């Protein structure tokens, strides 16, 4: 059964509201978005034909600061998906105490079917359509699924040309040459590692003795695979959109990264030792750590009973449904939630935003030092609440995040 991601979000809010005794008015307010813009994006294709794509930009809640959230290009993009992703960004920024709100954007398109010129025209027209609700003091986009530093460069240029001056702070995840930050590309993967390392210190287990399975081998999955592989962990299986590969003795991640970074699919990698598997099969491989780093709604009530890991480290946003959460909790599986686990990306995005506004840039040591400090402070808060209340890590993270949002709403009040 296909789960509506925004229904999942509202269910998560209900769960935490009940746990913390949240004001019903605040609960009602949190289950809506501030604004949602739907745009049509007409593009003249290389063959002279016209195609029109649907685009979205959503602000969930900006009571604590400008919106922050990525832009994804995918044929599966829907308004409800973008609303859900914007809401998760609200919790993520609040949990890390960043002075930002939750936003997200997307275009319903398969970018692999576009030429570079078509992709650029699509990006520039999309930017022009949403230009009135983005900006350094309104909403700051970033890369997400199937977008990258080059797409952010086109957005920055389009916005700047319309404003008549260079405004690097309109997006993060840009190339370093035009105001991007060192460490941004690896930030989500580094953040996953810092949080996982902290969790294993609590469990008193040596991380490098653990076996890993990773769903998704893009920027997030690729980076955490690289970091854990270099740390000495055994990566049993990885997957991309084409499917996955499995090898019980451990994959050679460096060679696989070289292969996929040339535009190749994992299923086409030629090594007779490796077994081809589906993304569904990958999730049920017996391992110590399962890292869903692809899309939302991958672990549901239909397959949660078959998960055989000790830890689920959420590299993707919303990969686990509420019903699956309960099943995993009852099985004694620790789920390190997305709003904590993969928050390294938005954290370094915030650093880039600050650097652009101040026109003063940091080195990689400062980036990683500040990233680790902020994430570990958040982890310690979440872990403390988990132990005190004997609840799941996700519920604890939501209690902390929602409490800060609720206080901000209370202090500001409702206009007029």
Task: Give the SSE map.
Blueprint: H1 5-20, H2 24-30, E1 35-44, E2 50-61, E3 67-73, H3 79-95, E4 101-107, H4 116-130, E5 139-143, H5 149-163, H6 187-203, E6 211-215, H7 219-230, E7 234-240, E8 243-246, H8 253-260, E9 275-277, H9 279-283, E10 289-292, E11 311-313, H10 322-330, E12 334-336, H11 338-341, H12 344-358, H13 364-389, H14 393-412
Parallel strand pairs: 3-4, 3-5, 6-7, 6-10, 10-11, 11-12
Antiparallel strand pairs: 1-2, 2-4, 7-8, 8-9
How is this structure best described in words?
- This protein is of the alpha/beta class.
- The chain contains 14 helices and twelve strands.
- Helix 6 crosses helix 13 and helix 13 crosses helix 14.
- The chain is globular.
- The model has no long low-confidence stretch (mean pLDDT 95).
Q: Key terms for this structure?
A:
416 residues; Rossmann fold; seven-stranded mixed β-sheet; globular
